[in-house]
C-alpha cells in the first residue's frame, strides 16, 4: 500500500480507561449533548459511523495515499475540475504542485535558514532538546510566500470549496500568521502524533461549535456536511485559550515545502477521510469499550455511558485533540494514517481543519525538511477582527496573540516589514479592515 507507515511510532496511547481530568467542563459538555440530542440518537450515530468506517478503512488500507488528490499548478488559473473537487471534499486534503516555483522556494529556504542562524538565541523554537519548529511569524521569507499572487489564488480556490448562504463571508483570503519548520536529518520527532487541531473540548463544550456537528449528534453522521461555512463561521474554537488553539477558522491548514520530503524523510501523514473521522471522534466519549478485547471492533458491544464520567480519550483543554490506536480503534490508524506523496520545493499540502494528521517521526533523508505553515483562511467576522489586530501587533513588534509569543520581531536581524506588497497582498494582510 503506497504511503503506509512501515512501523508504528512510539506515540502515546490514550487508554480507554484514562480520565482526562477531574474537571466539570468535561462533565457539563457531555451532559449538555445527551440532554439536547438524547441517548437513542447518540447510540444510532455510533452504530452507523462504526459501520461506515468498515468500508472506509478497508478502502484506505488498500489504496493508501493514492486517495489523496494531487493537482498540478494549472488549477490555480483554471480551478478544480468537478472530479477533483469531489475527491478533495471526500478526502479532506489535497496536494497542489508548484504553487511557488521550485528555484524560488529553494532560495527562500536558504534565506530562512540564514535568518534563523543570524538570530539564534532570540528566536524561540521547540522541542527544546532538538529545535525544529521555529516561532517566527513576520519574516521577509514567510511574507514573500504569503504575498505571492499564485499562493493567494490557491488560498482563494480552497476557500471556495466551502459554502455559506448567509452572505456574511467571502472566499477572499486573509493571512493568519504561523511558524516555520526546519528539521535536520536523523532527528526523531514524536511531538505531533495523530491529532486534530482547531480546538479540542471546545467542539463539545461551545454551543456554536457543537451546532456544526448537529447531524452527527442527531444520529445521522453520514449526513454531516463538513463544508458548511454558514455554521462554522461563528464557532468558538478557542473556548479554552492556549497556544495550541487557533481563534481563527482555517478552511484548510497547510504547509508550503521549501525543501523535498517524502515518507520517512520529515513528511506529513494524513487520514484521508474527513466526515467519518470527525464523526467517530465526536461520538467516542459517549461509549465505553467491552471488557472482552476480542469484541472491541463490534460497535454493538460498546456501552452507552451517561454517567458523570469525564472520560474524553485524547482530550485535554489546552492541547489539540489527540487520537491513538487504543482509544479510537475503529479508525484503524495503523493502516489508515498515510504519508502524502513525495513533495518538492514549492509544492503545497492542504488539509481540512477537522482532518486527523501527524508529523512523520522519522527523517532519514540527507537534507533539512523545511516548510512554512500557511493556511487558507476565508473572510469571516471573527477572522477580520483577529487579522486586524494581528497586523497592528506585527507593525508594533508584537507576536500574534494566538501564539502567546514575546519576541519583538522588528528587532531581528534581516527584518524588513511589509515593503513592496501589492494591493491584493495588503488586503489579505488586513490593511483595509
Structure description:
This protein is an alpha+beta fold. It has a single domain, classed as Sandwich (Jelly Rolls). The strands form five sheets. The protein has an eight-stranded mixed beta sheet with strand order 1-2-14-8-16-6-4-3. A hairpin with a 6-residue loop joins strand 3 and strand 4. Helix 2 packs across helix 12. The termini are far apart. The mean pLDDT is 95.
The main sheet orders its strands as 1-2-14-8-16-6-4-3
Mean pLDDT comes to 95
Distance between the termini: 48 Å
Tally of extended strands?
17
Helical stretch tally: 15
Shape: globular
Q: How many separate structural domains? A: 1
* Radius of gyration computed on alpha carbons: 21 Å
CATH architecture: Sandwich
Q: What are the segments in which pLDDT stays under 50 over at least 5 consecutive residues?
A: none
Our estimate of the beta-strand percent is: 5-15%
CATH class: Mainly Beta
Instruction: Specify the CATH homologous superfamily.
Output: B-lactam Antibiotic, Isopenicillin N Synthase, Chain
- Looking at how many chains there are and whether they match, the oligomeric state comes to single chain
Helix/strand-derived category reads: alpha+beta
CATH fold-level name = Jelly Rolls
- Biggest sheet overview: 8 strands, mixed
